[in-house]
Amino acid sequence: MKLIGVPLSPFVRKVAVVLTIKELDFQREDTMPGDTSPGFRKLSPLGKIPVLVDGDFSVADSSAICEYLEDKYPQHPVLPEGPEQRARARFLEEIGDTRLVEHASIIFIERFAATAIFGREPDLARVHAVAEPASFRRAPGRR
Question: Which position among 57, 74, 80, 133 has the lowest Cβ density within 10 Å, counted as fewest Cβ atoms?
Fold first, then answer.
């Protein structure tokens, strides 16, 4: 089994955690999102990471991968029992994939990447705006 992506991605890390909880052996292959090589685009037509390759089968998108792993390898389940609890877990995953990642990305960009990668001063007001608990009720950058 192979997990394609870069460990900096929270979505790649999410799948790696599920693979680890399920005690499944896997190899990692570093590939940046947006890779345009024909081989990667065959596995991920949208150019997104992560991609899981399991034998002759491959699937992209962290949520789809995690559901596949839960269905194919039921040992060490990551989802709770019962439809209500599973629905709640999927909703919390969606919050993590959207709101939490949006906010964490802004903090990462401003606190670490602004200077080191983009060569500019960080916008700390932007960091403080998303770090406030109330900001989780509105989209980042909107008042």
Answer: 133
pLDDT band, residue 106 (cuts 50/70/90): confident
Measured at the CA of 102, the angle between CA 17 and CA 27, to 5 degrees, comes to 25
Position 61 scores a pLDDT of 95
> What CATH number does the domain located at 2-72 have?
3.40.30.10
For the cut 60, the answer to whether the pLDDT of residue 135 exceeds it is no
| Of 103, 78, 76, 75, the residue nearest 89 (C-alpha) | 78
DSSP H helices, the chain, are: 10-21, 38-43, 62-72, 83-95, 101-108, 114-116, 124-131
The pTM score is 0.79
Mean of per-residue pLDDT scores for the chain: 90
In the numeric block, which tokens belong to residue 52?
A: 């899981």
Q: CA-CA distance, 77 to 141, in Å (whole number)?
A: 37
Taking the domains of the chain in order of start, what are their residue ranges?
2-72, 83-137
